[in-house]
Every structure is written in C-alpha cells, then in structure tokens.
Design brief:
Order of helices and strands: EEEEEEEEEEEEEEEEEEEEEEEE
Shape: globular
Helix content: under 10%
Radius of gyration: 19 Å
CATH architecture of the largest domain: Beta Barrel
Distance between the termini: 27 Å
Number of strands: 24
Number of domains: 2
CATH topology of the largest domain: Lipocalin
Length: about 280
C-alpha cells in the first residue's frame, strides 16, 4: 500500500464510436480484475489476475461501442457476470463462458450498470431521444438465447419488461424493495422490482430551473440521494409516494457517481474532493 506500481497491462486501442473511447469500470471478483472493452473493431471481456496482471481468461464479444460496467450477480443458482451491450445483453460464468444472451433492441447508448434483487437481474438502456428505452428483469438460471418475441413482455426467463423506463447515463437503484430511477432530465420514477408495475412516474425532482443528471442515485437511512450535474443534491424520502425532503448545493458541476466506504461518502466535483461522514 505504498502507492507504487505493481503491474500494468497494455491494451491495444481500437476505434470507438465518435472517438469517445471505452468507459466501463473494471470490477474485482474472487481475486481477479474483470473488464469489458466494447468498441467498433474487436470487443472482448477479460479477467486479469489481481496480483500479477496476467490474463486468466478472455472472451471475444460480437459487440459495438457500449459504456456499461459489468456486474457480478451472485444468485441462488450460480455466480454470473452480466454485461449490458447495444447488440446483446449477455451473461458469462466465472471462467468467461457465455451462459445466456438476448437481443434487447437496446437504445444506441448502453451506459447503465446492471443490478440485482431477489434472483432477478435488471438491465436497461435509455437515450432520451430513442423511442425504445427498455428495462428487462431476468431470472436466475437462464441459458441460451432468451430474446423476447415481438409481442412478448415476459417469458420463462424474463420476469418482466418495460419499454420506456430505461436510463441514459445514470444507473437505477433498488432500495427497501422498490426500484428507483432518476432520468437524465430530472424526472424521478419508481417501480415494483418483482412485477415491473409502476409505483409513481414523471415526478420532477427540482422545484424549478433546468436540472440534468449523470450521477447515479444512492440511498441511506430511508432516503434517496440524487446529485445533479449542477451540483445540487436532492434528498427524497424512500417509499411509494414521492416526497422531496431537502436540497443541498456544492456550487459546481458534478458528473461522477460517489464512492461509498464503511463510514464515509466520497464526492468529486469539477475542482474539489469531499469526504462526508457522520460525527
């Protein structure tokens, strides 16, 4: 823990959409560093040994530029690595073998990280100008191609599907058995994660003015926190009715989701780094 470099792995750069580069974060699982590199030429997912940087496994992906972080889903049946992507939603086992996939007819920008609750994993995308902005709730134990038919909203392995509930930049949140979503233009929504039924929708989170969101929401002590690009944190009461409790300002742009430690919240704005904790 001296801050010295232990290893590095050079990645050959590939062409990406609009030269935006990749943006999915690496994750750590069982001693390995797992990451995707979705691009326009040679996409892949790989696991690197956390101590040495050696490649443990690498699996090619028939994928175009996508920007979502992979998600380790530990359900009652097995552990899966679930990835969001423009061409396909996919899941892999811990050795990189494909378990299942589906054509979700995703929005052109797949950015949101998957998340899970009660043996369901939720995958979504939702560029605000697209007519199809889907959310899928997928059951544990799926295999093969689980793509829904044109008129289907559920199947053996898809618990439910919402065609217009997807996120653009932010990732959704499940807290106290409710699925919350802050959309990029400042509307706050809530769904039942077991059924996909709408609890409430299109609640404008800011009392006035233009408010946009890139930061994903987080929750603590019965409250949902939504930090806008303008540096305003909106505190919403968790529950089946929308109730804005507080508004706090950091007075400058913020586009990075916070990091949460055991007792602290780390927030980075355009020029400052904050550590917030209870006294």
């Amino acid at each position: 823990m001296d801050g010295n470099e232990v290893w590095r792995h050079e990645i050959d750069p590939q062409k990406t959409m609009s030269d935006w580069g990749p943006a999915g974060s690496p994750i750590i699982h069982d001693g390995n560093v797992i990451m995707t590199y979705d691009n326009m030429e040679n996409s892949w997912i790989a696991a690197f040994d956390g101590k040495t940087g050696d490649i443990v496994w690498r699996t090619e992906r028939d994928e175009v530029s996508s920007w979502a972080t992979p998600y380790v889903w530990e359900n009652d049946i097995r552990t899966e690595i679930v990835t969001n992507g423009k061409n396909r939603i996919r899941s892999y086992d811990e050795a990189g073998k494909l378990l299942w996939e589906m054509d979700g007819r995703m929005s052109w920008a797949c950015i949101a990280t998957p998340l899970s609750n009660d043996n369901l994993v939720f995958v979504n995308s939702g560029y605000f100008m697209d007519k199809h902005r889907p959310v899928y709730a997928i059951k544990a134990g799926a295999s093969g191609d689980i793509t829904l038919g044109d008129d289907e909203t559920s199947s053996e392995f898809v618990a439910w599907y919402q065609p217009l509930a997807g996120n653009y930049n932010t990732s959704p949140l499940i807290y106290q058995d409710l699925y919350y979503s802050i959309l990029d233009r400042g509307t706050f929504e809530c769904y039942n994660p077991a059924t996909g039924e709408l609890v409430f929708t299109q609640k404008k989170i800011a009392p006035s003015g233009r408010t946009t969101f890139t930061v994903s929401p987080w929750a603590y002590n019965g409250k949902i926190f939504c930090l806008s690009e303008q540096g305003e944190t909106y505190v919403v009461e968790a529950g089946s009715e929308f109730n804005l409790l507080h508004q706090n300002s950091l007075d400058e742009m913020c586009m990075s989701s916070p990091a949460i430690t055991e007792d602290s919240l780390i927030i980075r704005t355009i020029s400052k780094l904050y550590r917030i904790k209870n006294k």
